[in-house]
Amino acid sequence: MAVSLHRRTGAVAFFYWLWDGLDRTIFTAIKFSFPARFVSPFGFLGMLTFVVFVILGISGALLMFYYQPMLDRAWDSVQFINDEVPFGFHIRNIHYHGSNAMVLLAILHMYYQYFSGRYKIRNEILWATGVILGTVTILEAFTGYDVIFSERAELAISIAASLTTSIPIAGPTIRDAMFGSGFSDFVLRFYAQHVFLLPLVMLGLMAVHFPRFLVFDVPMVMAIGGAILVTGGVFPIDMGFKFEPTVPPGITVPEWYLTGLYAFLRTQYDKFVTGVLWPGLFIASFLLIPFIDRYKKFSWKDRPIITAFGITGIAQIMVTTYWGFYIPSDTTIPLVQRLVIDPVFLYTVMILLVPLGFGFSYMMIKLAKESERKAKLAKDKGPKKVATINLSQKWINWLIVALLAFQVFLNIAAYNAALTGMKNISLFFIGIILIVFAGFFHLYRYGLNQAKNAPPPPPVPIHEEKPQELPQSVPTSGKLPEEKSLDDSKKETKELAPQITPPKVQADLGVGTNTIPDFGSSDLKKP
Asked: What residues form the membrane-spanning segments (predicted)?
């Protein structure tokens, strides 16, 4: 009786049934690619951003069970989640650090597309929706850390309300729609924007922005998830101070992705120019890049002006971000004086940074292009092969066993840490578990890929030539054969030497004085 080895039963059959159903309906126009080997994550940073968005949606839905969007209960409900709800500390840290990770991945994805010139493949719509999606992502993160209504959130809300009011004509109307009539109902409005309106806009933009062919790399997804958990374990987010209208707030700064804007606002220049107009021009310049870039090639080295402007923009963002975080530590200085930044000094530095950053970047790009040209000319003289690390099947098996053992240890350690109340340590261990799983999965994939490679061909056997026969007699004519030169005789001797078999000795015959008792060494001399 024959037994089929391809029969699917139980959970495997259900999984394939579910996947086939989704493939015929939802995934009809979207194809997922699971790479069989390591692929650079820069090529699918957008997919990793979407994965983090899903993590935020799940963790945010769990936080909604206990959060109360009311002015006098918002902060207390978050404290209850953080301290009393089982695994509430873990979920809150995952949600907070996941939001930072999503903003970071979105920015990296945008700049990777910028420097690689992907928008030149008739992808102007994808580029424009990506820039808008990145802006909405920052707004989503901004409304998220404001619903806690701490002192830090109150500062951010006050700045956002004043910036919205500074917009000509439509500013007051937008402020009333987003913030309400004051502190009495803005928490509920921010909550509605954070959990419904902005995610709905993001999903609509993602439906247009994401291509139909998506790369889903399991080890990278696990590594990103593990990195978020490890960050939450090493840097657990605190509650901050609850906002009290009767207590003057202390010195605080917004999140890192808004600190550069905060530096401009601290100059006390016109709010509309510093907080609305300049960020709007920055976003508009990114939107117009596909229509400005007329270079025919895609490499950043072949687009020196566009690349130099991009590097200059990154330099300005880094300088203003650091400036926004910097607050003099001298407490004898009045609070307002510590927060105010000299506008002349700041804007002078920013203006000088444009030609200096652009000129230096342009020069380095030209040098890199020249080095690449020389490297191509000297390619024939250089090494032909690149050194690679190829693990044998034995080493792959040992590494997989070691990773499995280490993962079992981490699971036990995380469980013990959770039982003893060490929340951040348990979160750290869970993140390491995911990272180890990512390494295990990649190593397993590497082993399968190595097994598919064809083995090297066997070495070709070398056939020995038969030794030439030596002359047995002298010619009958009595004459000796014609004498050869000394060099010819040496060559002939060298050619014949390896072909003449040496006489066998006692060790080669496999006999000895102790092998056969009646056979002595003297018998070898007999004829």
From this structure: 42-67, 94-112, 124-143, 186-207, 213-235, 271-292, 304-325, 345-365, 395-419, 425-444
- The CATH homologous superfamily to which domain 11-252 belongs is Cytochrome Bc1 Complex; Chain C (1.20.810.10)
Distance CA 190, CA 325 (A): 25
Q: What does the pLDDT read at residue 178?
A: 84
| Cβ atoms within 10 Å, residue 154 | 19
3-state secondary structure at position 30: coil
Token look-up 């400036």 returns 323
Would you call 255 helix, strand, or coil by DSSP?
Answer: coil
- Joined together, the tokens standing for residue 358 give 């652009």
CB-CB neighbours of 133 under 10 Å: 22
196, with CB counted inside 10 A (0-12, 13-18, 19+), is exposed
Residue type, 57: G
More confident residue, 69 or 479: 69
Q: Output the pLDDT for position 505.
A: 47
Burial of 101 (0-12, 13-18, 19+ CB in 10 A): buried
Looking at per-residue pLDDT, the higher value among 159 and 66 belongs to: 66
Cα separation, 140 vs 99, in Å, equals 9
Q: What is the pLDDT of residues 281-340, one digit of tens each?
A: 989 998 999 888 888 888 888 899 999 999 999 999 999 999 999 888 777 788 778 888
Beta bridge partners of 32: 214
pLDDT score for 517? 45
Which value, in Å, is the radius of gyration of the alpha carbons in the chain?
37
The DSSP secondary-structure symbol of 493 reads: H
* Three-class secondary structure of residue 459 per DSSP: coil
- Residue 72: helix, strand or coil by DSSP? coil
Query: Would you say residue 390 has pLDDT above 80?
Result: no
Residues 6 or more apart in contact with residue 451 via CB below 8 angstroms: 393
Tokens of 165: 């009011």
**In sequence order, what are the residues at sequence separation of 6 or more whose Cβ sits closer than 8 angstroms to the Cβ of residue 432?**
226, 230, 410
Strands (E), 389-437: none
Kindly report, residue by residue over 17-62, the tens digit of the pLDDT: 887 887 777 677 777 777 877 778 888 888 899 999 999 999 999 9
In terms of pLDDT, which residue wins out, 236 or 9?
Answer: 236
Q: Are 234 and 428 in contact (CB under 8 A)?
A: yes
Q: What is the DSSP string of 295-356?
A: -S--SGGG-HHHHHHHHHHHHHHHHHHHHHH-----TTS-HHHHH---HHHHHHHHHHHHHH
Residues 6+ apart with CB under 8 A from 393: 447, 450, 451
Residues in Cβ contact with 341 at an 8 Å cutoff, skipping those fewer than 6 apart: 263, 266, 267, 323
Q: Which two tokens mark 86?
A: 């089982």
Report how far residue 147's alpha carbon sits from residue 227's, in angstroms, rounded to the nearest whole number: 25
Q: Three-class SS of residue 215? A: strand
* pLDDT value of position 81: 94
